[in-house]
Design goal:
Pfam families: STAS, Sulfate_transp. The chain is α/β, with parallel strands linked by helices. It is about 60% helix and about 5% strand. It is built from 28 helices and 12 strands. The strands form 4 sheets. A 6-stranded mixed β-sheet has the order 7-6-8-9-10-11, sandwiched between helices. A two-stranded antiparallel sheet has the order 1-12. Strand 10, helix 27 and strand 11 form a beta-alpha-beta unit. The radius of gyration is 37 Å and the shape is elongated.
C-alpha cells in the first residue's frame, strides 16, 4: 500500500521572518494578556462550579437514561466493597469493620467533589499496606501486653491495641487528606506525573509481595514476630518459614479451599462475563458462613499530637493515592470522551480522606478491579457510587448483628487472589527490556528498594532514582549538526541521514534536550566540538595576527615616509640605505603587490589547520532551539557568552525556532541588548539559513528550492 501512495506538493512564498518581524506580523500578546493575575486565578479556583462539580452534572442527570445502568453498576461495586473492605482492613492492621467504614464515607464525599464518572473510591491494597506499616510501627503488640501488678503477662490487650491503631490510622489519613487539599488548591495536580508508569507498576508489584508476606500468618495459622524497618520483609519471611512445622492444619485447609474456589469462580466470571449482566460476587459468597460488622462509627477529632510522627507517611500516602487516582481517572475519561480535572481530583480525594478520617476511616483511592466493574456493568455517572455506598450502609446497619466472627484465613485468601493481577506485572520486565533499558532500571530499582526498605523509604528512593534518570538524560543529550534535505526546508542530522547536505559556511547546531544549569557547560563544549572551532586558541591567534598586522603597517608607514624624503632630495632619517635595498630586493609590500598577502594567507591556513576548520570556511552558526521548552539564567549567560566568543573570531551566531515562552524568558533574563537584538532570532531554521546566505555568502552557496516541499497527500 505504501508503494502506491501519491505525494502532493505545496509552494509557500513569504519573507524571511526574524523574531522582531514575526511579532509585528502576528501581533504577539503581552505577558499580562496571556497570564491572568493571582486574584483572577484564585477566583477561578474557588468558584462554586469548579469546587462542586456535582452542581454541573446533577441538574442534567437523566433518570431515564442513566438511572438503571447506574443502579446495576452501583450494586455490583457495592457487593465487591464488602469482602474487599474487610480483607484489606487486615492489611492495615485494623478490625475488619473499619474497612467497611472506609468503603462508605469517602465514597459519598467523592460524589460531590470528584470529576471522574467511573472510578470507585474505597480501600486499595497498596494504601492498606502503607497504613498497616504506620499502625504497627506506632502501636506494636509489645506495647499492649496486659499487666498483672508488676508482672507483664503474655496476654495481649487486643481492644486497647486496636483502639490506638484506629487513632493512628485516622490521624495519618486526615493529615494526608489535608496535604492533598492544599496541593490541589495551589494547582499542584501535576505532582502525580513524577510517578511514572514503570515506577507505579513496580511499586505496586513490590507492595503485593509485602501483602502476601503479611497474610502468611493467617494462611498458616502461626504467630511470627513483628519486624519493622529495612529488611523487615526478609526477617518476617524467615520467621514464618521457621514456624511452618507449627502450622494449624484446619486453617491452612480452609485457606487453600477458599483460594481454589475463588480462582475457579473468577475464571468462570471472566468466561461468562459477556452473558452475565453483573459478575458473580464470589468473595461475598465465600464469606457467607461468617462475617462480622458493627454499627456506624460516630465522628471524632483525630489525635493531632500524632501528626508529627506520621507526616512522612501521610505525604507518601497522599502522593501514591493521587497518582493511582488520576491515572485511572484519565484512562476512563479518555475512553468515554470527557475531561478529568487533575487539580480538582486532588481536592476531591483530599476531602474524601479528611472527612473519612473523622469517621475512623483510613486512606482511600480508587481500585482498578472495582472501577472496571463499575465501567463494564454500564455505570454512567457518580450516582453509581451512591448505590454502592447504600449497599455498604445496609450491610453495616442491618446485616451486622447476623454474624459473630470473621474468618481471617478466608479474608487472607481473598487478598491473595485479588493480588493476582499485580503479580502479572512481572511481565513488564520483558517488555521494558525490549523497549527502554532506562525504564527497566527504574522498574527494578523501585521494586528492589520497596522490598528492602519498606513502602515509605522505598517510594522516596524510587522517586529519587527516577528523577536522577531524567537529570542524567538531560545532562547527556544528543548533539547534532543539521543538514538540508535537498529541495525542502527540512533539516536533519547529517550523521544519521545520507541525503542531508551541510550548508557551506553555515553550521546548524541542535541539542536533543533543553539547555539549563545542569548541562549549560556541556552545551557550550559540544557546540565548540561540533563546529570544529577552538575559540580560545583562535582568539589568541587572531590577536597575534592583528598585532603582526599593526607592526607591518607601522613599518610600511616608516618606509613610505623615508621614500618620500628620498624623492624630495632630502636625507631620510634612516641614514642607511638598507631600506632601499630591501625595496630593490623585492619587499614590495608598500607598492601594492599581493605576493606577501598570498604567502601570509597560506601561512594562516597552515597555522589554523591545528585549530580545526578554517575561520573563513564558517561564517555563521545557527542554534536550533526547537527542543527547548524553558531557559534559565545560567543558560541565558551561556548563550550570551556564545555570542560574544564567536563574535571575537568573526563568526555570526543566530538562534532559530524558539518557543514563545523561551522568548519571554530571554526578555525577562535581560538577554537582548543593542548588539544582540531580536533580529538574531528567526522563526525557523530555514529562515535563518536564508538570511545567512543573503548576508554572508549568497554567491558561493548553492541555493535549494526552499518553498517546494513534498508531503503526503
Amino acid at each position: 500500500m505504501d508503494s502506491t501512495r501519491k505525494f502532493g506538493k505545496y509552494r509557500v512564498e513569504r519573507e524571511v521572518l526574524d523574531e522582531q518581524r514575526l511579532e509585528e506580523v502576528t501581533q504577539r500578546k503581552t505577558y499580562a494578556d496571556t497570564h491572568p493575575s493571582l486574584t483572577e486565578r484564585l477566583k477561578d479556583s474557588l468558584s462554586v462550579m469548579s469546587s462542586l462539580p456535582v452542581l454541573y452534572w446533577l441538574p442534567k442527570y437523566s433518570v431515564w437514561d442513566y438511572g438503571m445502568p447506574d443502579l446495576i453498576s452501583g450494586i455490583s461495586v457495592g457487593i465487591m466493597h464488602l469482602p474487599q473492605g474487610m480483607a484489606y482492613a487486615l492489611l492495615a492492621s485494623l478490625p475488619p469493620v473499619f474497612g467497611l467504614y472506609t468503603s462508605l464515607y469517602p465514597a459519598l464525599i467523592y460524589i460531590f467533589f470528584g470529576t471522574s464518572r467511573h472510578i470507585s473510591i474505597g480501600t486499595f491494597t497498596v494504601l492498606s499496606i502503607m497504613v498497616g506499616s504506620v499502625t504497627e510501627r506506632l502501636a506494636p503488640d509489645m506495647d499492649f501486653l496486659k499487666r498483672n501488678g508488676t508482672n507483664i503477662t503474655a496476654e495481649l490487650d487486643i481492644t486497647a491495641r486496636d483502639s490506638y491503631r484506629v487513632q493512628v490510622a485516622a490521624a495519618t489519613t486526615v493529615l494526608g487528606g489535608l496535604i492533598q487539599v492544599v496541593l490541589g488548591l495551589v494547582k499542584f495536580g501535576f505532582v502525580g506525573t513524577y510517578l511514572s508508569e514503570p515506577l507505579v507498576r513496580a511499586y505496586t508489584t513490590a507492595a503485593a509481595a509485602h501483602a502476601v508476606v503479611a497474610q502468611l500468618k493467617y494462611i498458616f495459622g502461626v504467630s511470627p514476630t513483628r519486624f519493622s524497618g529495612s529488611l523487615s520483609l526478609v526477617y518476617t519471611l524467615k520467621d514464618v518459614c521457621s514456624l511452618l512445622p507449627h502450622t494449624h492444619l484446619p486453617t491452612l485447609v480452609a485457606s487453600a479451599v477458599s483460594m481454589v474456589f475463588l480462582i475457579a469462580a473468577k475464571e468462570l466470571n471472566s468466561f461468562l462475563s459477556p452473558k452475565l449482566p453483573v459478575p458473580i460476587p464470589v468473595e461475598l459468597i465465600t464469606l457467607l458462613e461468617k462475617f462480622l460488622v458493627g454499627n456506624l462509627s460516630s465522628p471524632s477529632v483525630p489525635d493531632v499530637s500524632l501528626f508529627g510522627e506520621v507526616i512522612g507517611d501521610a505525604f507518601a500516602l497522599a502522593i501514591v493515592g493521587y497518582a493511582i487516582s488520576i491515572s485511572l481517572g484519565k484512562t476512563f475519561a479518555l475512553k468515554h470522551g470527557y475531561k478529568v480535572d487533575s487539580n480538582q481530583e486532588l481536592v476531591a480525594l483530599g476531602l474524601s480522606n479528611t472527612v473519612g478520617g473523622f469517621f475512623q476511616c483510613y486512606s482511600v483511592c480508587p481500585s482498578m478491579s472495582r472501577s472496571l466493574i463499575q465501567e463494564t456493568t454500564g455505570g454512567k455517572t457518580q450516582m453509581a457510587g451512591v448505590a454502592s455506598a447504600l449497599i455498604v450502609l445496609i450491610t453495616i446497619l442491618k446485616l451486622g448483628p447476623l454474624f459473630q466472627e470473621l474468618p481471617k484465613a478466608v479474608l487472607a485468601a481473598i487478598v491473595f487472589v485479588n493480588l493476582k493481577g499485580m503479580f502479572k506485572q512481572y511481565s513488564d520486565i520483558v517488555t521494558l527490556w525490549k523497549s527502554s533499558k532506562i525504564d527497566l532500571m527504574v522498574w527494578l530499582v523501585t521494586w528492589m528498594s520497596t522490598l528492602l526498605f519498606n513502602l515509605d523509604l522505598g517510594l522516596a528512593a524510587s522517586i529519587t532514582f527516577a528523577l536522577l534518570t531524567v537529570i542524567f538524560r538531560t545532562q547527556l543529550p544528543t548533539y547534532s549538526v543539521l543538514g538540508n534535505v535537498p529541495g525542502t526546508e527540512l533539516y536533519v542530522d547529517i550523521e544519521t541521514h545520507r541525503e542531508a547536505r551541510e550548508i557551506p559556511g553555515v553550521t546548524i547546531f541542535r541539542s536533543s534536550a533543553t539547555v539549563y544549569f545542569a548541562n549549560a557547560e556541556l552545551y557550550l563544549e559540544a557546540l565548540k566540538e561540533k563546529s570544529g572551532l577552538d575559540i580560545s586558541k583562535m582568539i589568541i591567534y587572531k590577536r597575534r595576527q592583528e598585532a603582526k598586522q599593526k607592526r607591518r603597517e607601522r613599518r610600511a608607514e616608516r618606509r613610505k615616509n623615508g621614500l618620500w624624503e628620498y624623492l624630495k632630495g632630502g636625507d631620510p632619517d634612516c641614514t642607511s640605505i638598507g631600506w632601499i635595498s630591501e625595496l630593490q630586493d623585492g619587499d614590495t609590500t608598500t607598492l601594492g603587490s599581493s605576493s606577501e598577502d598570498t604567502l601570509s594567507h597560506d601561512l594562516e591556513r597552515v597555522s589554523l589547520g591545528s585549530l580545526g576548520k578554517w575561520t573563513w570556511d564558517i561564517h555563521s552558526i545557527i542554534i536550533d532551539l526547537s527542543t527547548a521548552n524553558f531557559i534559565d539564567t545560567v543558560a541565558i549567560k551561556t548563550m550570551k557568552n556564545i555570542f560574544q566568543d564567536f563574535c571575537e573570531i568573526d563568526v555570526d551566531i543566530y538562534m532559530a525556532a524558539c518557543q514563545a515562552s523561551v522568548v519571554e524568558q530571554l526578555e525577562l533574563g535581560g538577554f537582548f541588548t543593542e548588539s544582540i537584538t531580536k533580529r538574531r532570532l528567526f522563526a525557523s531554521v530555514h529562515d535563518a539559513v536564508l538570511y545567512c546566505q543573503n548576508h554572508r555568502g549568497a554567491t558561493s552557496i548553492p541555493r535549494s528550492e526552499p518553498s517546494v516541499v513534498s508531503i503526503c497527500s
